[in-house]
Amino acid sequence: MTSLATLSGRVAVITGGASGIGQATAILFAQHGARVFVGDYRLSRESEQTLASHGIRASACDVRNVAELQRLVDQAATTSGRLDILVNNAGIGMVKQIQEVSEEDWDNCLDTNFKAAFFGAKFAIPHLIRSGGGSIVNTASNAGLLPRAHDPVYSISKMALIGLTKSLALCHAKDRIRVNSVCPGPVCDTGMMNADLEAAADRAATEQRFIAASPLAQAFGRMSRPDEIAAAILYLVSDAACMVTGTALAIDGGKSLGVPPSL
Question: Which residues contact 67 (CB under 8 A, 6 or more apart)?
Fold first, then answer.
């Protein structure tokens, strides 16, 4: 029996694919038969070699630059003759209260987390239509499900991304294009998480605070891993999810459910 998760013959573009969730997703897609194109504004020799070892083509792309984003999407489609999947994964965090946020801060966060996904979809949709349909997955956050007091601008960007997901899902169901989002909680071994831990005065205590924020993370004694988020993205782009669209899938260990019980 053919695996429902096979991506054989399909072409995927993933932004923010040099590390963390994006890299894990790119490798998983390639392992399931997809031809994968990755864009990232911070490509290291090590990440390029890792991706290349799986047959993944990587190129520099700052998603805040609309021309660079269009080039990434169009090159993947023209090189391969089709496009089936877009994963808008690139994102940044911002832990600042509103009175501390400059216009530059606002633009950087919203352009990376929201504007890039909008234009990524705009550029991908004509190619997806020509391919007979396809799938877009946006990497949102549990901050998009419930606002958070310590990072309001980041929360705004992710709530907007979930709204975009639902709107595009409605607009393009007629084209057999499915649009979904994943909403991770704290995930280890990502650029965002590593930066937070490296900046912390007490790395171990900070890591434990992230773990304590969600009940399943407490129970397992660890944060989510990038490969676990990648597995959910694989499901959403696969034929197994052919009737799934407009969803915001929480993968946060129950963090967005409410106040966790004491252990």
Answer: none
Options 2.30.110.10, 1.10.10.10, 1.25.40.10, 3.40.50.720; CATH for 11-185+225-251 is 3.40.50.720
The 10s digit of each residue's pLDDT in 188-198 is 878 888 777 77
| SS3 at position 136 | strand
Residue pair 225/253 in contact by the 8 Å Cβ criterion: no
**CA–CA distance, 252 with 218 (Å, rounded to integer):** 11
Alpha-carbon span 108 to 85, nearest angstrom = 25
Active site residue 154: yes
Q: Are 175 and 125 in contact (CB under 8 A)?
A: yes
> Which is catalytic among the residues 119, 123, 154, 210?
154
Whether residue 113 contacts residue 63, with contact meaning beta carbons closer than 8 Å, is answered with no
**Cα(115)–Cα(107) distance, rounded to whole angstroms?**
9
Integer angstrom CA distances of residue 86 from 48, 51, 150, 207, 246: 20, 17, 30, 31, 15
Instruction: Answer whether 121's CB lies under 8 Å from 88's CB.
Output: yes
Length of the chain: 263
CA distance 151 to 250: 19
Nearest Cα residue to 91 out of 109, 73, 79: 109
Segments of the chain assigned to CATH 3.40.50.720: 11-185+225-251
User: Could you give the CA distance from residue 175 to residue 189 in angstroms, rounded to a whole number?
Assistant: 36
Question: What is the per-residue pLDDT across 65-80, written as a single tens digit (0 to 9) for each?
Answer: 999 999 999 999 999 9
Q: Tokens 């129950």 identify what position?
A: 254
pTM: 0.93
